[in-house]
Design a protein that fits this description.
The protein has helices spanning 10-15, 20-23, 45-55, 64-70, and strands at residues 8-9, 28-32, 35-38, 61-62, 81-84, 99-102. The protein is an alpha+beta fold and 109 residues long.
C-alpha cells in the first residue's frame, strides 16, 4: 500500500494486491465511488477535489467556489465540488452526487 498515491483508485489498489474486502476495511476510507485515501486522512475540500479530479478527464481543473476555497478565499458554504472540464469534454454518466462539472475549457485554451 506504500506505493499507492495519496488519493488512489480502486483499480490502482487492486493492482497493488488490495482486495475489495480490504477497501471496505479499516485501512482505507472511500472518498468517492472507486476513489480512496488511507484511513486517518481528513477528507476535506482539498481531498474531495483531488478525488473528483482522479475521475475527470485530463485538463480538468477546480472551478468556482471550490477553486476559491483552495486558494484561501472565503465563500458561502457549498458542499459540492466544482470542476471545469476541457473544451469538448462531456459530463460523465453517473457523476458522483455533490460534484458539479461544467464544459467550455479555460480562457486561452
Amino acid at each position: 500500500m506504500e506505493r499507492l498515491p495519496f488519493v488512489f483508485l480502486r483499480t490502482e489498489a487492486r493492482a497493488e494486491g488490495l482486495t475489495d474486502k480490504a477497501l471496505r476495511g479499516p485501512l482505507v476510507q472511500r472518498v468517492l465511488h472507486g476513489v480512496y485515501v488511507r484511513a486517518g486522512v481528513t477528507v476535506d475540500v482539498r481531498v474531495r477535489t483531488l478525488a473528483a479530479l482522479r475521475l475527470a478527464p485530463a485538463g480538468t481543473v477546480a472551478a468556482g467556489s471550490t477553486a476559491a476555497v483552495l486558494l484561501g478565499g472565503v465563500v458561502p458554504p457549498d458542499h459540492r465540488i466544482h470542476l471545469r472540464l476541457p473544451h469538448g469534454q462531456l459530463r460523465r454518466k453517473g457523476t458522483e452526487a455533490g460534484t458539479l462539472r461544467s464544459r467550455g475549457g479555460l480562457p486561452g485554451s
